[in-house]
Amino acid sequence: MTEVSARLATPASSEADATLLTNLFQLYLHDLTAFTDFYDVGEDGLFYPDYLRGWVRHESPSQLPYVLREGERPAGFALIGRAPYPLMGKGRDYRVCEFFVLNRSRRGGVGRRAAHAIFDELHGVWEVSELPNNARAIAFWRTVVGEFTGGRYEETIEHGDVVQVFTSRPRR
After folding, report:
1. 49 prior amide bond cis, ω within 30
2. 86 upstream amide cis, omega within 30 of 0
3. How does pLDDT run across 104-152, given as a tens digit for each residue?
4. Exposed end of the chain (fewer CB within 10 Å): N or C?
5. Contact 52/147 with Cβ under 8 angstroms?
6. Which residues, at least 6 apart from 40, have a Cβ–Cβ distance to it below 8 Å?
7. Are 114 and 75 in contact (CB under 8 A)?
8. Which residue from 126, 17, 11 is spatially nearest to 67, judged by alpha carbons?
């Protein structure tokens, strides 16, 4: 099985990480247009609005961008909000804000293993949310969170989105 890693893209990371995240984010926004009219394409062919700039410039310590890799190959990204991230429920420490895995890496456990690695690294109360009409994302996160927690999580509807809430603790 190919090694999967989730590495925090820090300010000390290479400029290549910022470029990789920027380019992958456009693919992610393309995928989201199947579920929401919030994003559109400009005359330059790029999707907007694009909120990634703050993440790759490390404008806030509440924004943790991760590069996902399958072996040495880029496989996707995860954007994790850390309290006091403004778009997070009360009493929560972390939020999966955006999570993307390239098509070639889907269905092989890459996303699951990367998410578990991040949950193992960052302990506390987590929230993950999905657009209500994105059935694949809902099924994915129910499975990933369910496996990680042994089924010990809560699921609610918040602001119209499906949300899983759980606690990540150090493993013994």
Report:
1. yes
2. no
3. 888 889 999 999 999 999 999 999 999 999 999 999 999 999 999 999 9
4. C
5. no
6. 33, 47, 48
7. yes
8. 17
